[in-house]
């Protein structure tokens, strides 16, 4: 089967909101519907022309349980367009892009939307073992966010425990400086990508319509907290074949060249990120020196620096900041990273996005900027 060229026509995201902050009352499905509407508006693609919608979500609420299709319908788009949801913890959105990439590259589809969304504000509490035996001793509410951190590996381990095992209990001066630098770099993001940020709104009973149009996280974050904070939000990318991009007269942002995945010890999941990049570059006959820019998931500064050290080379590292500045949205982070990566490249340059998740899974993506 002939391999089709895969184009990223456009990418958008909502503002990143602090859990319990200005976006607290907006459901993840509403955030997802907002980016879907904006993406089609910006590209001029008719909704009925979309072949498939794929969405990542790491922390689904009990409603809905298939945001990939539900958000599409909530946006008022044609029921004939199918959609589904993937879950890969922090790699969820990049997995959605990967799925869409292979659908197009294989010739099965021509236009796909890949997205991701999570609302930490709306993440539910649950009870276990009470369906048939609702005993008083079982009436304990479990925070699904805390449970998700610990239950993605045979030996439960939280992000904080993983960090301590890998890097010790205290943040180093070097790591604190990297985190502060990430927040300083992030100030450039709005100037380069402001048109790709989709304002979202809701109606407050007392205050009327509340519009959120800017990220909440960059100001006031402590550089002494080693781990990136969480953020509510959604992101989406429109992918097409090369022929469809020409047919619709699109000005593509980038060409998606490929992906690779890798696994490692769940207690040191960051090692899977660099392993995925090395695997991907080997497949394409490339070396690290061929890359102009790296976008590495900022779970912590120490993890980023360890990953960059394992890869070597002189590529620019996270030039527009990362999750230490903006906050980390597990469902949508991969697309937010691709947005920053593409904005950091010059036309013709190659860049790689490197992400890992709890359980010891890594994923890497390679792009070439086109315009």
Description:
- The model has no long low-confidence stretch (mean pLDDT 92).
- The strands form three sheets. The chain has a ten-stranded mixed β-sheet with strand order 3-2-4-9-1-10-14-13-11-12, sandwiched between helices.
- The protein contains twelve helices and 14 strands.
- The longest helix is centred in the first third of the chain and has 16 residues, at 28-43.
- The protein is of the alpha/beta class and 371 residues long.
- It is 32% helix and 22% strand.
- Residues 6-229 form the Thiolase N-terminal domain.
- Keywords: Acyltransferase, Transferase.
Features:
371 residues, alpha/beta, Peroxisomal Thiolase, Chain A, domain 1, 2 domains, 12 helices, 32% helix, transferase, EC 2.3.1.9, Thiolase-like, Thiolase
Helix content: 25-40%
Fold-level CATH name of the largest domain = Peroxisomal Thiolase, Chain A, domain 1
Give the name of the CATH architecture of the largest domain. Answer: 3-Layer(aba) Sandwich
Strand content: 15-25%
Order of helices and strands: EHEHEHEEEHHHHEEEHEHEHEHHEE
Main pleated sheet: 10 strands, mixed
Number of domains: 2
| Gap between N and C termini | 29 Å
If you average the pLDDT, what whole number results? 92
What is the helix tally?
Answer: 12
Side by side, the strands of the main sheet go: 3-2-4-9-1-10-14-13-11-12
**Rough outline:** globular
**According to CATH, what is the class of the largest domain?**
Alpha Beta
Assign the structural class, choosing from mainly alpha, mainly beta, alpha/beta, alpha+beta, or little secondary structure: alpha/beta
Task: Give me the Rg, rounded.
Answer: 20 Å
Low-confidence stretches: none
Number of strands: 14
CATH superfamily of the largest domain: Thiolase/Chalcone synthase
Protein name: acetyl-CoA C-acetyltransferase
Domain Thiolase N-terminal: 6-229
Domain Thiolase C-terminal: 250-368
Enzyme class: transferase
